[in-house]
Amino acid sequence: MAASSSAGCPTPAGANNDIPTYEYVDINTRPFHVGAFERLWKETLKPTYYSFRDAPQETEDEEFAQEMGVSAETIDELKVICSPDTLRCYPENEPPDKNVVPMDPGLRTLRLRKRQQDYKETLLRDFTCRQHLYATELESLAMGKRPADPEDLVPEGEFILSINVVYPVIFERFKHVRPHQTLQVLGSQKLTDLRDAICCVSDLQVSGEFSRSPDMAPEFISKDHYKSATFYLEGTFYNDMRFPECRDLSQTIMEWAKSHDFPTFQTAKMEETTFRDLKIKIGYPYLYCHQGDCEHVVIITDIRMAHRDDCLDHKLFPLLTYKHRVMTRKCAVCHLYISRWITTNDSLAPMDPCMFCELCFRMLHYDAQGNKLGDFLAFPFVDAGAFN
Amino acid sequence: MDYYIEPLKLDCEDLLHRFQETESVRYEVFAAVWRKMDFPSIFYGKMAANEMRAFSRLILTTAYPYFLPPYSFHIRVGGLYLLYGLYNTQLASPKEKIRIALKDWENINKFQEDAMNAQHYDVSYIFRKLISEKAFYFAAMPKHLFFRVKRKTKRPTVCDEFWDRPMRVMDLVTTETLEEIVNVQEHYEKAKQAICGTPGQPDPAINLVSKDLVQRLHSTVVTYHNWLDEAGGKKKERGDADAGEGTSKQSEASQRAERLASIKSKSYGQAVEAVKSRRHRQVEIGSSETGGGQATPRRNKSLKARITKKMTGKVKEEILSGETTTAWRLSIAEQKSKGKTKGKRRFKW
C-alpha cells in the first residue's frame, strides 16, 4: 500500500478535519466525515449557487450593482466588455474548420496534436479502440436526464459520490489494464443500494452438473444462494445482514487479526449505513467482498454537489457511468453467440472441455423430445462479458 | 491524455506570462492577449467525442491552480480569466465544469473580496457570471483520485515568476511595531533609572540594549529591502539567461536522444530475423567473419549466393539485395515475404 504515514503531507495544526486535504498529493486524501463535509459546503454557499434553476438575469445584475455600489450603466458596459464574444479569434460568421489544426500553430499542445495527426495519416488503417470509443457512452446517456415525476427529483444540494469498482483480477490479461466500472451514488443512499447495483459475473455463476435437466440450471444462481457481502471502509466492515441466511464475512478476518496482534476492526450493518455516515479517504483503495471470496477493490474517486446538468432522476441512482467491456468466448460451433454451456467427457465435441451457446448445445446434445444423446457432462457457463 | 499535461501547462504559463507583462488586470487586455495567441484553437483538431470531453476536463484542471495561492494577485486574475475563456470556448457539450475544492473556497472568497475592495469590477463580474452560469462543481478535490501510486508523476511545481513572495520581514517590522518598541524602550529606561541608586542617572553597568535600537532596526530593514530588490532584479536577469541556456541544453539533449533512437530503430530495422533455432549459427558466422580481419562488417551473402558464385561466378542481384543474413536460406521465396513484415513504427509522444 502507501508509504509509511510519516512521508505524507504534514497535518496543518488547528485545521478542520472534515475539509478534505491531500495525504499524498494527487493520490489520496486524509479521512474525513462525508456528512460533515457536505454540511461545510452548504454552509459556505448561497443556495442560489447550487440551485437547479436559473435566477433571472435582471435580479442578478441588480444584486451585483448593489453589492458593488455601481450604476446600471456601468453594469451594461461591463456586460459588453466581458461578454464571451471577446474570446472569439475569427471574424463573425466565418468560423474556422474545427477539425483541422491551424497551420503553423504557436501553442505547444497544438504542435503535439498536429504531429500525432500527421502520423495518423501515414497509417494504412486507423481504428480507435472500441474500449475508448464507447467509454463515455453510458455517462452521456444519463447526462441531464430529468425524472417524469417531479417527486423523484434529486434534492438541491445533494451530493454525488463516484465510485470505481475494479474487477477482481482473475484473468491473465488484466495484469496491465485495470478494468473497472464506475457508479455514481447519492449521499443519502445506503451501502446496500451500491451493493445491489454492482454487477459481477460471480453473482450469476451456477454450480453443478445439468446434462440431464438443462432447463433447471437458471434456478440455481449464486446470487440467490449466497447473499452475504461486505464492504471494508476505513477500519470498519459493513456487512450485509438483510436476510436471515446472511453470514458475517468479516468474522474470519477479525479472528485472524486478533490472533496476530493487529488493531481490532469494527463491524457495522451495511443496510443501516448511508454514505453520509461514512468516514473515508478519497482515492484510497477499499474492499468489497461477496460470494465468499470474490474480492473487488473499491475506490471512491470523487464527491461533489449535484449539478444542473447531472442526471437528476432519483430512481436512476446508483447510476452506472462506465463499464469496461470484456472479450467474450464464443460458441465452438457457430462462433457467433456467447457460450452458455461447457461440456466435458463429450463424445460429440472436438475438444475437452468445449463451449457451446444455448442453441447449438441443445441441437447437438438433445433430440427433439429433449432426451440426452451420448455421454457427457454439462455445466452452465457464465461468460465474463455477460454484462457488456 | 497525460502526455498533454506538460504542453498544456507551458501554454497556460505562456499566456499568463504575456498577461503579466502588460501590467494590467483589465479583462480587455487579457482578451487581446488571448486573441493574439489564438488560444481557443487549443480545442481544434480531430478528436473523438469522448476525447474532447477528457481534454476539456484536463485543460480546466491544469488551469485551475493559477487561480489559487501561492500565485500573485495578478496571475490569479489571469487564472480566473483563463478559466472563463476556456469554459466558454470549449467544444464539449454540455460544457465540462470547473471543479472547486472545499479547501480552496476560502481562498477564492478572499480573492473575490480583494477584487471587490480594489474595485476591479471586471474581475468580480466574471466570477459572478461563472457562478450564475453554474460553471462550477463544488467538489471535494480538484480532480478525481484513482490511487495511482505507481505512476511517477512530476511534482506540481510553482512557476517562479508568478509567485507572490510573502514579505515576512516587512510584515514583522511595521511602523506600529517600531512605535511599540520605542514605548517599551522608554519604559525600560525608566525602570533602569528607578532601580538605580543615583536618581536620574542609570547604572552604566546595565547596558544590554543599545539606545538607538529603533533607528538601527529601521535602517537594517530598509537596507535589507533594497538588497532584496536588487537581488531580485539580478536573479531575474540571471534566471532568464539560465532558462535560455537550459532550454538549449535540453534541446541538445533531446536531439541526441532522438538521434540515438533513430540509429537504434535503423539497426533494429535491419536486425537479423533468423529462426530462433538457427540464431546461434548465424552469430557464429558473423563473429568469424569479423575475426577474419574485415574492416567494415559486411553483410553476409546467403549460402545460395555463395554457392552460385562458386559455381557460376555470377551473383544474382536479388540475392545480394536480401536485407538479412540468410546463410541458412536455400530459397528465395521466403526471403521476399520477409521484406514486407518490417517497417512498423509507433508514435512517440
From TrEMBL, chain A:
- Where is it predominantly found? nucleus
Citing just one GO molecular function, the answer is: core promoter sequence-specific DNA binding
Keyword Transcription regulation applies: yes
Task: Tell me the compartments it is located in.
Answer: Nucleus
Record's InterPro entries?
snRNA-activating_su3 (IPR022042)
GO cellular component terms? nucleus; snRNA-activating protein complex
Q: Keyword DNA-binding on this protein?
A: yes
Q: Keywords, A to Z?
A: DNA-binding, Nucleus, Transcription, Transcription regulation
The biological processes this protein is annotated with in GO are: snRNA transcription by RNA polymerase II; snRNA transcription by RNA polymerase III
Taken from the record, one Pfam family name reads: SNAPC3
Q: What does this protein do?
A: Part of the SNAPc complex required for the transcription of both RNA polymerase II and III small-nuclear RNA genes. Binds to the proximal sequence element (PSE), a non-TATA-box basal promoter element common to these 2 types of genes. Recruits TBP and BRF2 to the U6 snRNA TATA box.
Q: How does it assemble?
A: Part of the SNAPc complex composed of 5 subunits: SNAPC1, SNAPC2, SNAPC3, SNAPC4 and SNAPC5. SNAPC3 interacts with SNAPC1.
What family is reported?
Answer: Belongs to the SNAPC3/SRD2 family.
Q: What is this protein called?
A: snRNA-activating protein complex subunit 3
What is the native source organism of this protein?
Aldrovandia affinis
Q: What is the lineage of its organism?
A: Eukaryota, Metazoa, Chordata, Craniata, Vertebrata
TrEMBL record, chain B:
List the signal peptide residues: none
| Highest taxon of the lineage | Eukaryota
GO cellular component entries: snRNA-activating protein complex
Q: Offer one example of a GO biological process linked to this entry.
A: snRNA transcription by RNA polymerase II
Where is there biased composition of kind Basic and acidic residues?
232-241
In residue numbers, the region (Disordered) covers 232-260, 274-301
| Any one Gene Ontology molecular-function term assigned to this protein's record | sequence-specific DNA binding
Q: Pfam families from the entry?
A: SNAPC1 (PF09808)
Q: What is this protein called?
A: snRNA-activating protein complex subunit 1
Which organism was this protein described from? Aldrovandia affinis
Lineage, broadest ranks: Eukaryota, Metazoa, Chordata, Craniata, Vertebrata
